[in-house]
Design a protein that fits this description.
This protein has 3 helices and 4 strands, in the order αβαββαβ. By secondary structure, it is of the alpha+beta class. The structure holds iron/sulfur cluster (2 copies).
Length: 70
């Protein structure tokens, strides 16, 4: 996802981050998460009670699997 698009939603708790699509199980997203909100799965799952919507996982994913949804 383009960084400008991501920037719009950073720390916006009215949106959710979800993993959809062809995950390569590299877990760059898991390692990028400062809140330990992502669980290693194929694709990973996000614990929304921990997620701050910092979007670091979205930016770390090389396959654009992590999406921002309303
Ligand atoms: S960074 Fe992307 S491809 Fe890698 S594990 Fe996470 S969702 Fe899957
Ligand atoms: S948006 Fe930030 S806090 Fe939420 S799962 Fe991704 S990296 Fe973790």
């Amino acid at each position: 996802m383009k960084s400008k698009e991501v920037e719009k939603f950073r720390y916006d708790k009215t949106v959710y981050v979800v993993a959809v699509g062809n995950c390569g199980t590299c877990y760059y997203c898991v390692n990028a998460c400062p809140e330990n909100a992502l669980r290693e799965w194929n694709p990973p799952t996000v614990d929304n009670s921990l997620c701050t919507r910092c979007m670091k996982c979205v930016e770390a994913c090389p396959r654009n699997v992590l999406k921002i949804i309303r």
